[in-house]
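Sharing a chain and its predicted structure for anyone who wants a worked example. Both blocks are below, sequence first, tokens second.
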Amino acid sequence: MSDLFRPGGPRIIAVANQKGGVGKTTTTINLASALVETGLRVLVVDLDPQGNASTGLGIDASDREFTTYDLLIGETALQDVIRATEIEDLGIVPATVDLSSADIELIANERRSFLLHDALRQTEMDEYDWDYILIDCPPSLNLLTVNAMIASHSVLIPLQSEFFALEGVSQLMITIREVRQTANADLRIEGIVLTMYDKRNNLSQQVEQDARDNLGDLVFETKIPRNVRVSEAPSYALPVIQYDPNSQGAIAYRALANELVNKHQRLAA
């Protein structure tokens, strides 16, 4: 395992934005793939009942006997829940629509907000030697997203380069602050990554300027462009890094991975 992070465990990042269609799942699977390409071991936890991260990493819907729901309730062995993907050193805990009822079914559990935190810190997890765990959150601020934030060291926020984009971020910031105050005092914002960016579009440039004016250094330098290859890749059950390694989307996600790792190296120095 890399020595960049705290002893005994991987760096856990929740990829979250309650607004749908912002490139959250796309960012999760492609950032994971780009990190693996640098020699790191990465686990993706699909916490979205739509299960798109699972599909995008090649886990067919009919082949998900054990899922994130089983991970949360803790009644299934870790080795049965974590699945290998076609990409070496990239694992996934897949999701199905069963997760959509988690809010109701887990309400009686006193530790309902800490289930993912506990699951990712069980001693058996050490055997996998992950460097990063990326959690693909659902597009809502529900119990699942709160679980992800309590389980994580930080939150990475994809921000679509379109009108009203920053309005949704303010509500997410409030939720992060509440989680800090009540359950995870060390939670921080990993950063904001601009997605679906079109440099020819004045609106994209305006959203970037507004984001940098309001959020400063929290905004990653790397921008993810609007790119047809990024859109096509999931239909082949592949990250764009594997689908078209030389595409602008693949190049951007590699740059994002490098920026993230370099930041963590500076913090660890």
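Comments welcome. The longest strand covers residues 188-197.
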